[in-house]
Amino acid sequence: MTLDPVQLATFHAVVEQGSFDAAARVLHVTPSAVSQRVKALEQAVGQVLVRRGRPCVPTAAGRPLVRLGGQVALLEHEALAAARGALGGHGRARLAVVVNADSLAGWFLPVLAAVPDVAFEVHTDDEGHTADLLRDGTVTAAVTAERTAVQGCRVQRLGAMRYVAVAAPTVASAWFAGRDPGEAFAAAPMVCFNRKDTLQHRFARAVAAGPVDPPTSYVPASASFTEAIRLGLGWGLVPEAVADVDVPAGRLVALAGGRHLDVPLYWQCWRLESAALTTLTAAVRAAAATALR
């Protein structure tokens, strides 16, 4: 069978915009027309493709078509841009990417400025979960801890982000001075980014050589996370670049005798011959070569 390109583009708009009404506004048609197109596509495929809700989300059957719709839209944009050439009028390509918060706060954001004529939609998630947005077609590319290529994607190793265990001087003195490191990390209050963030628990278990269950605060923003540690909410793991500034300045104290945790990061993107995606990938690899180990 051959998919109707208008129906596919409409379905992609519904998922991308989150609702039938929003898709209708973007496509300059009525919500009824959007509904009819999506129903027609579902009938052609023989599967329910989208869960109607707030927001609308693709079903398992719909995810491959979300990805296909995004790929078609990107290639169509680039083909029109090439065909029109100097006449212009084709606007900017749009790429959706997902990146872990520490990379976004550190080395990744300047990458976007190095890619001309592209509008970006940036998502953020824990590096262990960013590949999920590739699987469901939400994003074109991801910085992820997942080394196995998502179906239909290329994967390239970027390097490792090094994390250092730190605490405010008051916390270091109260919980870590003169104590066995394993006992200290098992009991000392801890700061995590969110409930997906397992880095602190992994580090503490390694030092304590066993299970740990310390009191934990959750602060889901990179700058605020570090500030919470400075203010004494607990110890936590911060990127090496942050520790290199705050430890010499006396705002933080390095713990565990200089032990660290390296998190390998990978770049995964659609296996697609796209000029914008090729340029973005080159910029990511260049920045990572400088910023990561």
UniProtKB/TrEMBL annotation:
Family label: Belongs to the LysR transcriptional regulatory family.
Keyword Nucleotidyltransferase: no
Protein name: Transcriptional regulator, LysR family
Keyword annotations of the record: Activator, DNA-binding, Transcription, Transcription regulation
Gene3D superfamilies for this protein: 3.40.190.290, Winged helix-like DNA-binding domain superfamily/Winged helix DNA-binding domain
Pfam entry (one): HTH_1
Domain HTH lysR-type: 1-59
A GO molecular-function annotation: DNA binding
Organism: Micromonospora carbonacea
